[in-house]
Every structure is written in structure tokens, then in C-alpha cells.
Amino acid sequence: MRQIIMSAAIIVSVAMPAFADLITVKSSKSVAETMDALEAAVGNAGATVFARIDHQKGAASVDLKLPAAQVLIFGNPKLGTPAMNTDIRASLYLPLKVAVHEADGGSVLVYEDPVDMFADLDIPADAPFVKTMQGALGKLTGAAAK
User: Fold this and answer.
1) Which of 37, 42, 48, 82 is the most exposed place for a label (fewest CB within 10 A)?
2) Which pLDDT value is given to residue 15?
3) What's 65-105 look like in SS3?
4) Could you report how far apart the first and last alpha carbons of the chain are, in Å?
5) Residue 128 belongs to a domain
6) Bridge-based pairing state of the strands 96-103 and 69-75
7) Where in the sequence is the domain holding 40, given as residue range(s)?
């Protein structure tokens, strides 16, 4: 029994930081409208949209129900390449991702702070590309929520 409790404690202590570092931005628009605005903001900023994933549509394709939820995967090689040159393992976290899901009266945009995302890598938290990623994510999600 003691071994099970210790194992559970280790799992929770390892998993908790991943959940604690998410940034949320509220939008009064629907998921689709918010995601459309985010996709437009990303394009206007000169970044590339690699994929837009509709989880609700995927669930419906196997006769399951899911509230509206989408993920936008996007990036800019000018930011991502320096991160990967600093630590190639950054490629596990790039391109960047923003999720949008249903919430009371609208939707919520969710993303991980790049400082936290790269915390276990050999990437300094004050690296210029990390700060630029933080600023870009804040501006893009803010624009999408308006």
C-alpha cells in the first residue's frame, strides 16, 4: 500500500506543473468565431498555420459527443529555429499551439507559456526568442478574443 501511495505522489508531483502553467483568455464569441479570429491574427502576423483541428468534428465521426473544441497549430521559423538550435528537443513543443473550447457565454483560449514549455530543456527563460513567443501568444490570443 505504501508503495502505491508513493507512486501516486510521484506521478502527481511530476504531472502537476504541466497543468499549472496554462494561460487562459476569455472570449465572448463562439469557438468557431474565436478560432477564425485567431487564424486571421496568425496570418496577419506573418506566421504559418500548419493545422486547425476540430475535436468536436472528430468525436462526431465516431458517433461520440464533445463540446466545441479546436486547436490551432502555427509557427514562424524565425522564432522556432533559434529555439531548436539552442536545444533540438524544443521540436517536441513546436510549432506553437492554442486550444479554444466552449465556456459559459463564449469560449476560452488556452496555451502554455513558452518559459514553462521549455523549462526542462537547455533554453534560458530570458532567451530573446522565448520573450518574443510570449509576446506573440499574448497579442494573438488577445486579438482573437476581441
Assistant:
1) 48
2) 43
3) CCCCEEEEEEECHHHHHHHHHHCHHHHHCCCEEEEEEEECC
4) 51
5) yes
6) antiparallel
7) 21-145
Which three cell numbers mark 142? 488577445
Q: Could you tell me if 109 and 145 are in contact, meaning their C-beta atoms sit under 8 angstroms apart? A: yes
pLDDT of residue 17: 46
Give the integer Cα–Cα distance in Å for 44 and 4: 51
For the chain, the domain total comes to: 1
In a domain, 123, yes or no: yes
Does residue 91 surpass a pLDDT of 90?
yes
In a domain, 9, yes or no: no
Q: What is the CATH number of the domain that holds 43?
A: 3.30.310.70
Query: Has residue 51 been placed in a domain?
Result: yes
- pLDDT for position 13: 42
Check whether the bond before 95 is cis (ω within 30° of 0): yes
pLDDT tens column, 1-56: 445 444 444 444 444 444 558 999 999 999 999 999 999 999 999 999 999 999 99
